[in-house]
Amino acid sequence: MFSELAETTVVKNYLSKAYLEFFILVGLIIGGFTASKISGTREPELIPAVWKKYHGNNIYKRLFILLIGGILLGVGAGIAAGCTTGNILQGWAHLSLGSIVAGISFFLTAVITAHILFYNVWRTK
Amino acid sequence: MILKIIIGLIIGFVFGYALQRTEITKYPRVMGMLLLKDFKVLKFMLTSVIFSMIGFHLLGELSVIKINPKPLDWGKLVGGLLFGTGMGLLGYCPGTMMSRIGEGKKEALLAAFGMVAGLFIFILFNDFFKSTFMAAPIDGNLFAVLGVNQ
């Protein structure tokens, strides 16, 4: 299965520039670590406080949502050819047509999902 | 190769540092924006878009870099719908997820695992996605649509 995967065009295209992009991810982790260490704002909490307040202490509910959200994020970023960084920060700056559509679509669905998820918050101002 | 690794590390470090210090890795901040109450994240994003737009187009005019806009196809809309749902559920995007792993949040690790699984699905069904959503892309940027700066 893995040898077949390495033959697909996506993976081949990716491997040709993999070093730069992979080490950007590593750098992001190091950057977040350094910034939080220097400023003393590390937050090793497992569940965000806002989530706890409105959705209770059930850890499995949060982990299930995380896993589903992560899978959607991966597939969506693949189909839309870029995540928020690639489509909004870079694509909008390039003024490319596809990124403008993708960015608007990101925001609209994220706002709708958040309003469904935190129904109580915006209903009772 | 070693140069690429160093450049990647530097870009990632600066970006991750900025993401953490502007507090847009914080869950309440992102959800505040998505619930239309706190627009700090949006201000950060649009400021960096405007700033890098000037830089990109200046360097593009000087032929230092080549600006290649992303083509418009149905995948942008469909992928955007999936990605946006994931972003609303998680409360962060891939870039801030990595910064948040560095920040010490263990939940981001599971989200990163899910994201890798999602990319795996995308690669496995790549031919299907390509033929369904990414056929007949429209090339070009906003300049071509508005007919300015040609």
What is shown here, in short?
The complex is a heterodimer of chains A (125) and B (150). With 125 residues, chain A is mostly helical.
Explain this structure.
Chain A is mainly α and 125 residues long. Chain A has helices at residues 2-5, 9-16, 18-39, 49-55, 59-79, 84-90, 97-117, 119-123. Chain A is globular. In chain A, α6 crosses α7. The mean pLDDT of chain A is 82. In chain B, α5 (94-103) runs antiparallel to α6 (107-124). The model of chain B has no long low-confidence stretch (mean pLDDT 85). Chains A and B meet through α2, α3, α4, α5 and α6 of A and α1, α2, α3, α4 and α5 of B.
Keywords:
heterodimer, A: 125 residues, mainly alpha, 8 helices, globular, B: 150 residues
Number of strands of chain A: 0
What is the molecular shape of chain A? globular
Derived from helix and strand composition plus strand pairing, the structural class of chain A reads mainly alpha
Low-confidence stretches of chain B: none
The mean pLDDT of chain A is 82
**Secondary-structure element string of chain A:** HHHHHHHH
Task: Give the helix proportion of chain B (percent range).
Answer: over 70%
Largest interface: which pair?
Answer: A-B, 92 and 96 residues
Give a quick account of the main beta sheet of chain A: strands, pairing sense, barrel closure.
Answer: none
Biggest β-sheet of chain B: count, sense, barrel? none
Stretches of chain A where pLDDT is under 50 for at least 5 consecutive residues are none
Distance N to C terminus of chain B = 37 Å
Query: Count of helices of chain B?
Result: 8
